[in-house]
Each structure stands twice: as structure tokens, then as C-alpha cells.
């Protein structure tokens, strides 16, 4: 199923956890900031809408998506952080650079999440064009930031259940 078949801002809200005392870190890449800021706004507003406390949301900026992994790792090492949301937009260029970034970030975030025993959410768009990015940052296909935030909410809830 592609994003075209599933709106990123439409999700089940059954059995969501109480996140009023959960602390979330949002790490945002500065590359393509006109899009990443929309992802951040979507993620932030979704967290608030489903019960997060504004004073328990922290943000960190990184130069580009390649730096998301290590910054997410730093936040995940903090005992007070329950989940990290990594937000970026890696647009295909003339070379294979985007492939290297995308694979590195996907693997890096996975490794950091497992190493720190905490959810680190891959909220990174990997579009071929800016138009595809716009469509997924509050456009016709919803907002990847919304999806990333809801994924973080559900994962902290699952962790509490599984490791209770
Ligand atoms: N081209 C994009 C980049 N490139 C920068 C890298 O992410 C990284 O900051 C640099 O290689 C230094 O380590 N980053 C994005 O987030 N999006 C792009 O489209
Ligand atoms: C993903 C990138 O770093 C990309 O924007 C670089 O563009 P190019 O592959 O044309 O150098």
C-alpha cells in the first residue's frame, strides 16, 4: 500500500495511553525547513491533541537528516525522555546522495531505538520531488508528522503494557 492509498493523518485512536506525564523529544532537520516545520507542527499538535503536556515536549534541531540518528540517540539516552520523534525530508537529487542518507538514517534510528530501549520514530519523508513532499506534509496525503506523533503515542503505550 502506498501513501496515496492511506492518508498519513488518518489513524485508529482506540485504546490510546494517557500521555499527560510522558516526555517526548522532537528532533527536526533544517534541510527543507519549509517542509520539516510543517512536519513538526503536525507532530506537535497531534501530541497535544491526544493528551501530551506542552511543558513535557522538547525540541532539538539538526543541520540535515543524516544527523537525526545521533541527535535522537542523545535524547533517548536521557532518563526523562519516553520517546523521540525524528523529522526530516530527504529529496532525491542528481546523485545517489539521498539513498545513502535515507539508508543511514533508517538504520541509525533503528539502532538507537533498540540500544536505548525507547521508541524513536522515523518521521522522515524520502520523496522524489518537492511536490511529493508537500503532499505528505499537510497536503493531499496528510501529514507525516501526524503519523509520527501517533506512532510515538502508541509505542509508549505498548512499552508500558509489555514491560509493566
Ligand atoms: N540533501 C539533503 C540533505 N543533505 C544534508 C545531509 O543530511 C547532511 O546534513 C550532510 O550530508 C552533512 O552530514 N539533508 C536533508 O535532510 N535533506 C536533503 O534533501
Ligand atoms: C539528498 C541530497 O543530499 C541531495 O539534495 C543532494 O543533491 P545531489 O544528489 O543533486 O547532489
Number of separate structural domains:
1
Largest beta-sheet details = 4 strands, parallel
Q: Determine the structural class based on helices, strands and strand pairing.
A: alpha/beta
Count helical runs: 5
Rg from C-alpha positions?
A: 15 Å
By CATH reckoning, the class would read Alpha Beta
Small-molecule components bound: the ligand Nc1c(NC[C@H](O)[C@H](O)[C@H](O)CO)[nH]c(=O)[nH]c1=O, the ligand CC(=O)[C@@H](O)COP(=O)(O)O
CATH architecture assignment name: 3-Layer(aba) Sandwich
Q: CATH H-level name... which superfamily?
A: Lumazine/riboflavin synthase
Strand order of the largest sheet: 2-1-3-4
What is the helix/strand order?
EHEHEHEHEEH
Strand content: 15-25%
| Shape field | globular
CATH topological fold name: Rossmann fold
Question: Can you describe what's shown?
Answer:
- Belongs to the DMRL synthase family.
- Catalyzes the formation of 6,7-dimethyl-8-ribityllumazine by condensation of 5-amino-6-(D-ribitylamino)uracil with 3,4-dihydroxy-2-butanone 4-phosphate. This is the penultimate step in the biosynthesis of riboflavin.
- The chain is built from 5 helices and 6 strands; from the N terminus they run E-H-E-H-E-H-E-H-E-E-H.
- The chain is of the alpha/beta class.
- The protein has one domain: Rossmann fold, CATH 3.40.50.960.
- The strands form 2 sheets. A 4-stranded parallel beta sheet has the order 2-1-3-4, sandwiched between helices. Strands 5-6 form a two-stranded antiparallel ribbon.
- Helix 1 packs across helix 5 and helix 2 runs parallel beside helix 3.
- The structure holds ligand LW54GNZ2 and the ligand CC(=O)[C@@H](O)COP(=O)(O)O.
- The site of the ligand Nc1c(NC[C@H](O)[C@H](O)[C@H](O)CO)[nH]c(=O)[nH]c1=O has 13 residues, from strand 3.
